Amino acid sequence: MHNDSSPEHTPSPDAEWENDTRSERDIALDVVQRVLARAGTALDEGSTRHTSHDGDQLELEERSALRRVTGLSTELEDVTEVEYRQLRLEKVVLVGLYTRGTALDAEVSLRELAALAETAGSEVLDGLLQRRTNPDPGTYLGSGKAKELAQIVAHAGADTVVVDGELGASQRRGLEDIIKVKVIDRTALILDIFAQHAKSREGKAQVELAQLEYLLPRLRGWGESMSRQAGGQVGGAGAGMGSRGPGETKIELDRRRIRDRMAKLRREIAAMKPARDTKRANRKKNAIPAVSIAGYTNAGKSSLLNALTGAGVLVENALFATLDPTVRRTKTPDGRLYTLADTVGFVRSLPHQLIEAFRSTLEEVGDSDLILHVVDASHPDPEGQIAAVRHVLADIDGVSDIPEAIVLNKADMADPEVIARIRLHESNVHVVSAHTGLGIEELLEYISEALPRPGIQIDVVVPYSRGELVNRIHLEGEIDSIEHVETGTAIKGRVDGELATELAPYTVK
Are 295 and 404 in contact (CB under 8 A)? Predict the structure, then answer.
């Protein structure tokens, strides 16, 4: 790596910096070739891996039906025939800035940003890192380094710069004014991916709300956008009393329209909540235990759901491939019914707008009896993934009281030393591979043991005319013995309170 040193630099008091050399403290904008050793390989190598549990994957075929193709353009020699234009895949340069930690940690984060950019449909050309005490308030990188970045962008032929962090409105404007290409931050990139992948009505509303919350403080006035709306007597046509004054600028009008739209979306999302609450209430009424699958994006949550239930939900080697929660009914090896819910994936620095917008969806986790925390064991930093997911889950009411099991997925591609290291620090770890089936049966046995069991003993003879009660005992309770006698079905076992009340008239005296 190339390091610049600056004589004006003042050493930081941060203890983590004291062990670095002076050149490391003053590191300039460095080209991180290791981040992009091979272009377009930020996601796991190889195509998406499917198993027989994943079904036909029709949604994946639909998503893959329209793909951008690089290298094609409508560039014309005779520009008099049609407006000159060039259509191409967005080509991006990534920029990261870190104030503490090691360069390796920053590279892991930049690799993840590259995977996000590829998932959004971009071609990543280069990745750059800078270390400084604090981000520059005007240009994020500092004006000098921003000019160097402008030269790199021009040389690479990029049309977009993606910053691995959240930019303020003035920082984004300052960078765009110097670099002369579009600049977006990590939050905008994640929101773009969510907008592409949202399928359900609720998911689309949640993503749009998050996008508007992000856009509102970042509106930028251009030209007439700063002009006034019919203040005073305009154009010789008197507007009359009560209308004189400076009026409202167009950018203020845009802000008001965005606020109105956000209020409408919040009402729509709130109106969808009772339907979910009703479904959850029915499951609680029927005493059906619930298991939630949570974890980092692309950790294999959907693959695990398919392996456990054969649900056939979308599986793709991409970040945030599935956003809409999927709930499936399944049975334990001993025949007890329970539900398994696949939730939206998490990521480092998940935009707070998305956490708020998807809070209603994440309630599914808070109402579960067991959380399967899925971790990509083949990732360079699985401990960082675990910490990022727990940071988000901590904001959901009731989650802290729910048992959690760490499920190390993709064990067929993981380093055994990494698995051993996580086992050392986590108390409840299960090693599986949704692709090969390794550990799936053992995980099912654990779920069966961990789910709450009925607590009321019964000894009843259910009349043959009440067969629905016998069926409920099979689904919701545990049966020790069953016998068909002259007056009905004699059952000994355990059930929950509500079913026990219904069975009370048939208790053996």
Answer: no
One DSSP character per residue, 157-213 reads T-SEEEEES---HHHHHHHHHHH-SEEEEHHHHHHHHHHHH--SHHHHHHHHHHHHH
Q: Which pLDDT tens digit goes with each residue over 128-153?
A: 999 888 999 999 999 899 999 999 99
Backbone angles phi, psi at 480, to 5 degrees: -90, -40
Contact yes or no for 158/93 (Cβ under 8 A): yes
3-state SS, residue 33: helix
List the structure tokens of 283. Answer: 């499951």
Tell me the pLDDT tens digit for each residue of 164-203: 999 988 899 899 999 989 899 999 998 888 888 887 788 8
Our CA angle for 419, 423, 427, nearest 5°, is 150
Distance CA 97, CA 127 (A): 11
- What does DSSP assign to residue 365? H
Please state, in angstroms and rounded to a whole number, the distance separating the CA atoms of residues 381 and 322: 22
Spatial CA neighbour of 355 closest among 159, 163, 162, 194: 194
